[in-house]
Amino acid sequence: MEISKKINKRLTRTTSIIIPIFIIIIIILITYGSNKISSFTTASHYRQLTEDVQNYSSILKAVTQQVGADEEIIHFLDHFLTTESIDQKNFLALKNQIALYENILQPITFINTINIVSLPGQYLVSSGTLFEDFDVTKRPWFKEEYLDNYQDPIITSAHKDYTTGKYAISIIKFIYSNHTNTLSGVVILDIFIDDLLDSMDKSFYLGTLKSYLNTGNGMYLSRNGLYTLDEIPTQDTFIYSDTILDNKVDILFAFDKSSLIYSKYVKQVTHTTIVILLSIGCILLFTLTRLMSFIIAPLTNSLDHLKILLKNLEKNNFELELNDEFEQLEFISEALSKSFDKKVQSLIYYDELTGLPNRKMLFKLTTKLIKKEQSFALLFIDLNKFKYINDLFGHTAGDELLISFSRALEDVFADKGIVTRYSGDEFVIIYDRYTCKKDLLDFYNFTVIPTFTKPIYFNQHHAVVEFSAGAAIYPNDATTFDDLIRKSDFIMYHCKKNDPSKGLIFFNPMLYATNLKVEDIKMELKQALSKDEFLIHYQPIVGKDQSIHKIEALLRWRSEKYGFVAPSDFILYAEETGAIISIGYWIIEEICKNFNPLSQTDRPLQISINVSPIQLMDIHFTQTIKKIAEKYSMDFSNLCFEITESVVLDENMVVYDNLHALHNLGITIALDDFGTGYSSFNYLRKYQLDILKIDRIFIQDSSNKYLNIVKNINDIAHLLGMEVIIEGVETKEQFDVLNNMGCDYFQGYYFSHPVTLEELKHLTTKSIPH
Fold it and tell me: Which residues form the EAL domain (predicted)?
């Protein structure tokens, strides 16, 4: 007992030292974590702000460029050189034209109006009002060098706005008249600085943000007034500075550190973290103490008994006591021998973790039932999202979950069958009480499923365990162990992939045959290229005059085994197997080889080729394309690669680099099926796409709503400098409406079905007949 007391005292002293150290560590971790969260949050918001401002700047410059090229505005400035000559009708027409562009900018809060200035007439049109005696050269933002760069929009330095008196930065574009060959006016688009700063400050809802813009005279403007650089508070503040506009004006972002740390969102996270860490620490300390006591107790008792035994040996007959101990050792040896034999058997036929029969025992039990020709069902069960639990809670917790789940399976199938662990998170149940599918399904739905709707406790966690299950019946579905496993596994995997919550699924021979055919198609695909089974058809793309300007190449497969296979039935599998890479290079080489006869027409032709995301992930893709084109003296400008929205949404750097490299070679990049996915204009700008192909779904319904959508997409694409191709044009009425709308090119059965190369050569010599 003396040894036990000493150990208990040491445990108590150790615990009293560990607790304060643990609390100090928690405080340090919380403080460090709060600072890191604050720094990361402000840096992320700063990057987002700079990206947003740059995006707005690009849009505003594009609009200014478009206004400066507007024929109606140029016409007005050319014909009304003085304010006296302006009549009400033409002035109203000018205001309406300006309003069209102002509507585009309406969502941008720091833009108020678009201003038009006549250089010869020295008058200003702003907010629907005409101002006289407006000399651009006397404006504070004007610089003589601006006149040398009249073709591009210019962002000026900070100045006070002429009409409102507010600080502003202007985006200007000089208007050049092709009729008079002179500068006839200026487009001025004012960015009100206080509104811009207010928009940026309010966007940071986690704390306080104050933005400052350098006005150019050593002063910084904020929502609250003008400050010198020394007057801007820097203590307990995250400061970021950048020149995010073309005019190289500094913008400072000052994030108040204390407002972020003590915001209700961060405080809530911090408090929750403290409670969780303290709770975990207390539980761990308590568990550790109890566990050590539990482990050490037998040891201390044994030591105490050993001391008493040694004292007895010294006082009593040594030989007699020794003989007694040897008898005990012999008994222990025999017990260990029997236990070892059982352990070997257990290791061979039983799972070490769960104690369930393993795969070898499953084979023995199933083979015995097959020999007896007894009907039974084999249920293959696989846990859903088990990897997620392993990653979230750790492998130890995952093991505990498997143990708890196996116990629950044994309980629910106690008198119905034998539960075995097949591998990992897979279990196979020999349901030897099988009579018919209905009885098994009823038992599964009304007994098994309700059992597992309740959370399972494991490793101090609770979770509702979901799983997929497939069943194969002996002898209806298979007559051997391997076939039963393969077919039950197949139907389980099908359930897991398509509808994991569906419940127990029985083996389906038709589904199995379909799957085998898919696998066979994949094998045939790998040999199709060497067997010369692929061919290319071509569909013309016409312009407004219905003459052929572009051609789309379409892959066709005439399989020796399956005959004609539609692209929708094999392209996906070609991508899955990687065969699309070699097929894609073959298509490009065939087109380059056969293009010369097509190009010998009175108009330049461009041929479009669909490119898979898998191809663009090849780091050698661009270099390979370059070699193929140079081999056949193919002009890069005659090539157009069509990509889908999924390519740009993944934001893969290899894909991004390949697209830009192809673009730099002079190859046109088109976005196919626009409108069927996320349809974001942001990636149109980011990836510098040249052509937008609007999907046929927008013209199948001839209602004004869908036609307006097409018109708006067409207008925005043109603003971004892109050409537009309308797919699926099948009638003259559709063509007339879309042509009047200003679309660039058209494709569809109204003009031509996909044709062979020889038919295409004939078509390119004349306009499409109707």
Answer: 518-768
Cα–Cα dist 202/208, whole Å? 8
Q: Which of 22, 511, 620 is nearest to 280 (CA)?
A: 22
Q: By the 8 A CB rule, do 221 and 229 touch? A: no
Place of tokens 């040891």: 299
- Listed in sequence order, the residues at least 6 apart from 176 whose beta carbon sits closer than 8 Å to its beta carbon are 68, 150, 151, 182, 183, 184
105: phi then psi, degrees, rounded to nearest 5 = -90, 0
Query: In terms of DSSP H, where are the helices of 69-160?
Result: 71-79, 88-104
pTM of the predicted model as reported, rounded to 2 decimal places: 0.51
According to the model, what pLDDT value does residue 319 have?
A: 44
Given CATH 3.30.450.20, say whether it is the number of domain 59-192: yes
How many Cβ atoms are within 10 Å of 511's Cβ, its own excluded?
A: 13
Give CA 256 to chain center in angstroms. 32
Q: DSSP readout, 604-644?
A: --EEEEE--HHHHT-TTHHHHHHHHHHHTT--GGGEEEEE-
Domain 350-507, CATH = 3.30.70.270
The average pLDDT across 491-511 equals: 87
Does domain 521-763 fall under CATH 1.10.10.60? My reply is no
Spatial contact of 762 and 751, defined as CB atoms under 8 Å apart:
no
Average pLDDT value over all residues in the chain: 83
- How many whole angstroms separate alpha carbon 515 and alpha carbon 519? 6
pLDDT tens string 11-48: 667 667 777 776 777 677 666 666 677 777 777 777 88
What is d(CA 541, CA 551) in angstroms, rounded to the nearest whole number? Answer: 5
Q: CATH topology of 350-507 equal to that of 521-763?
A: no
**φ/ψ (deg, to 5) at 242:** -160, 155
The Cα 648–Cα 640 span in angstroms is 17
Ordered by start, the domain boundaries in the chain are 59-192, 350-507, 521-763
